[in-house]
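HUMAN: You are asked to prepare a plain-text protein record giving the amino acid sequence and the backbone structure tokens, both parts labelled.

ASSISTANT:
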Amino acid sequence: VRLVESGGGSVQPGGSLRLTCEVSGFTLSSGAMSWVRQVPGKSLEWVSGVDRDGNIYYADSVKGRFTTSRDNAKNTLYLQLNSLRPEDTAMYYCSKSFTGAGVRGRGTQVTVTS
């Protein structure tokens, strides 16, 4: 099982990024997945989850601004981040679980600063 996140970067408030999570060793559509984020010194924060039926859920803090999608043919999960705020700055991980407690990749850093 391997997950590789990419697409992070540094943007100004109001900007956008698209994060990518390429998975291997399992079929993306066969189970739940999630995006989580972490700021140094703070606990992991759940951002979004896709359940086994493909239903997508969001944390209140990102609802309406972030969009999760997946391309089953490419075995890839995406997180579109719009209207970014400084408080969105964190390391973002995808996880092979709905809660974020499963296997994660190394993460991709998102920094929102003016």
Observations:
- DSSP finds no helices and ten strands in the chain.
- The first strand starts at residue 2 and ends at 6.
- The radius of gyration is 13 Å.
